[in-house]
Amino acid sequence: MPKLDDALDTGNNTKGENLPVHVTSIRLNKDNYLSWSAALEIGITSRGRLHYITGEKPAPSKTDSQWPTWALEDSQVKVWIISSVSADIQPLILRKSTAYDMWTVLAHMYGRKKRVLRAYQIKRSIYALKQGDLSVASFYAALKTKWEELDYHVNDDWECGVDHALYWEKEWMDRTFIFLGGLHDEFETIRSQILNCDEIPGIEEVYARIESEKQRRQIMHIDSHQGSSPAAFVSHTSRTGQRPTRRCSHCNKVGHSVDFCLDLHPEKRLVRGRPPPHRRASSVPEPSPGSSNVAKSKLSSDQLSELQAYIIRLSTQDDASTSEGAKLAQALVATSDQGNSPLGDWIVDSGATHHMTGDPTMFQEYKLTSGQQRVSMADGSSIS
């Protein structure tokens, strides 16, 4: 029979395997018992020592041949427990005789202590939890962690198995609603589709659908930035009210192409239905260097003479129109004789009731006023 002292000195178990001092990186600190106990239980189970903390393998008599082996393996579990708790908790369990005693004391002190209060705190944090800056996966993981801790603190002793199943069915449906309600508004479409189902799917399937929708949105977002389609370009220009910039290859000006350049196609001024922007305020054409008065006339001298004779013939047919015809004939005479003007240009009648000039030679005919008419000025005053 091997001696206990020899087994402890070698640090080996009965199979001769070297076991580590730590089986979990989580240390118990009075507030994390649920996560600590779960992690430590997994570590102990992986070493084949779970029955030492469940009480399924009690201590044999010290005179029994199995005593040294049991004492060695139980001490190994005690080392794992002591090394995984904080320094202020170690004195509370250090002198316990078995690993099972250590495990039971810690469960009573931190596991079931104030269970109702802790369940209330967990539920409040669950209802207040929203996705916020978290990803969908992180948000779901945070909820799952809180639900697992809540399940630990809630009494789950049911006498009727049917009622127990109905309770958990309703509980997980409520948890599905909490998960859907905490998501961002961008998932409203898929959320409505899930809630409109005849049978609400399980929360794992709901999470899978939300993740698929998120990945689809990411793919669509990437595709939309890889290139702009013609439809997107038209939509953009219609919103901004701007057209693509055009530059004339002849005059190098922006806003038109060479096909609509007025320098090459002056006849398109009337076709386009409006004068150039710098001439809208006046109907008097501006002389350009080197241009002649003849070039400004739209009709030749022969055409003006024919038009004048035609209007005079029309005026003789109706006495009521004689005066108007004569006036028009005079205007045509003035037009045809525009080259004799001392200034080289002539002023088109704009339809105003009064005209003013400092050069009487500008008029073909005029008469002096009686001196009693008054002319209204721009500031509202009038002068005679």
Note down, in words, how this protein is organized.
This is Retrovirus-related Pol polyprotein from transposon TNT 1-94-like beta-barrel domain-containing protein. This protein has 384 residues and is mainly alpha-helical. It has three domains: 4-111, no CATH class; 115-226, no CATH class; 299-347 and 354-383, no CATH class. Helices cover 50% and strands 1% of the residues. Helix 7 (115-128) packs antiparallel against helix 8 (136-153) and helix 15 packs antiparallel against helix 16. The longest helix has 24 residues, at 203-226. 11% of the residues are buried. Residues 1-13, 232-240, 277-285 and 289-297 have low confidence and may be disordered.
